[in-house]
Write a structure and sequence with these properties.
Blueprint lengths: L2 E5 L2 E4 L4 E8 L2 E12 L6 E7 L4 E3 L7 E6 L4 E6 L8 E11 L4 E5 L3 E6 L1
Parallel strand pairs: 2-11
Antiparallel strand pairs: 1-3, 3-8, 4-5, 4-9, 5-6, 7-8, 9-10, 9-11
Amino acid sequence: QVQLAESGGGLVQAGGSLRLSCAASGSIFTYNRMGWYRQAPGKQRELVAFVTRGGTTTYADSVKGRFTISGDNTKNTVSLQMDSLKPEDTGVYYCNANVVYLSLQSADHWGRGTQVTVSS
């Protein structure tokens, strides 16, 4: 069974920084990609950023230049450094991982989410 453990959410003033971390555990060989999605109240869940096993990164236009994602495929972890935070970054942030099992099959998994609140 795969679990994604998230940490690092909280309350911060606009212009501040937060760092989110996510660790995947279980019968995992590696991951194809890991990343973060967020969901603001009344809105659909949206992609924030992800990183592939090879280190290629992808960002939503709204966070480019402010957020930095990094992954460690030896530890199956991903971190998201969020700088210059804006009130519109407020939401529940979910870790997502497409993991590769020891059987070499793969599947998507989600964390429970961590709240990020940016005050103006």
